[in-house]
Amino acid sequence: MKIGCGGITWGTFARQHNVEFPREQVLSEIAQAGYEGMPVGGRDGQPAEEIVASLAQYGLVPAPGYLGASFWEVDQEEEIVARAEVAARLSQQVGCTEIYVAASPLTRREASGHVRPEDALPEEAYKQFARALNRVGEICLKHGVRACFHNHVGSVIETRAEIDTLFGLVDRGLVFQGPDIGHLAWAGADPIQFCRDYADSILSVHVKDIDPVVLKEGVAASWDYGTFSQHGIFAELGEGFVDLPAMVDVLKGVDYQGWLIVETDVTQKATPLESAVISRNYLRSIGL
After folding, report:
1. How far apart are alpha carbons 84 and 91 in whole angstroms?
2. Mean pLDDT of 35-39
3. Domains, the chain
4. Is 177 helix (H, G, I), strand (E, B) or coil?
5. Given pLDDT bands bounded at 50, 70 and 90, which one contains residue 46?
6. Burial, 155: exposed, middle or buried (Cβ in 10 Å; 0-12, 13-18, 19+)?
7. What CA–CA distance (Å, rounded) separates 220 from 75?
8. Collapsed DSSP state (helix, strand, coil) of residue 205
9. Is 0.85 surpassed by the pTM of this model?
10. CA distance 29 to 27
11. Which residues are bridge partners to 62 per DSSP?
């Protein structure tokens, strides 16, 4: 397994504390914390070779990037397809064989962690989501890249039931799984059972941990996404309740060799570097 780290921790910390982290500092600290790579995207049209070179200066390699879109909206399908072509080509050029695809923007922030059945998409919207995902998956495969669906609290595909419904409609030869383990737990799913059930489809993983006390309090009080985040729903690996060793065992059981990308969207630690080091050390402690 390859261990990466997302840069989102530095971005949210900077906004919260009114500080700046130059990209060079973020890359340096990710490398210092012991990670192999960082997710990439099209940064203002930066050529692929420049992206690869900028990471290589710190001993890092590109990890799978992210394509968020309103896949359920009929009138956005062609634009999504065009964006997928650009994203898949970039992924191929930087050497990534997977890309995360997710429902975006977060249109159900108010229902985060306490979704009701009536909050679900209508049947036709599910069908449109699947049609668009299939087209994106086909485009990605044309470039040697596999589209991995990425669940997210606050989006229209949050719960286990919603993921299962969507995956009952997609072509699983075109669309794969790229779960966020923490978001599964936050949404009330069993992330280990999810990994067992979808093991053969999982090609890339975002790894988070979740604070059980914050989760319980927030669900009882029907907090929105922002309130959960402010109260510390995101924990560093090993400091929450997600059984990460069990998840790793499931993946090892299917000879998983993809990325585990650590993402702590909002940290309560003193610095993003401290957060990254804690999570990387925890992964080392379980043999990764």
Report:
1. 10
2. 97
3. 2-285 (3.20.20.150)
4. strand
5. confident
6. buried
7. 37
8. strand
9. yes
10. 6
11. 38
Q: Is pLDDT at 44 greater than 80 in this prediction?
A: no
Q: Name residue 140's amino acid.
A: C
Q: How many CA atoms lie within 13 A of 131 on its CB side?
A: 13
Q: Give the strand order in the sheet containing 98-103.
A: 66-69, 98-103, 146-150, 175-177
Residue 65 · residue 40 · CB < 8 Å = yes
Closest CA to 258 of 196, 170, 179, 161: 179
Q: Are strands 66-69 and 98-103 parallel, antiparallel or unpaired?
A: parallel
Cβ-contact 185, 210 below 8 angstroms: yes
154-208 per-position pLDDT tens digit: 999 999 999 999 999 999 999 999 999 999 999 999 999 999 999 999 999 999 9
| Distance (Å, whole) CA 262 – CA 236 | 9
- Helix or strand (DSSP H, E) at 48: helix 48-56
Q: How many CB atoms lie within 10 A of CB 119?
A: 14
Cβ(140)–Cβ(188) below 8 Å:
no
Which among 244, 267, 213, 143 has a CA at the least distance from the CA of 278?
267
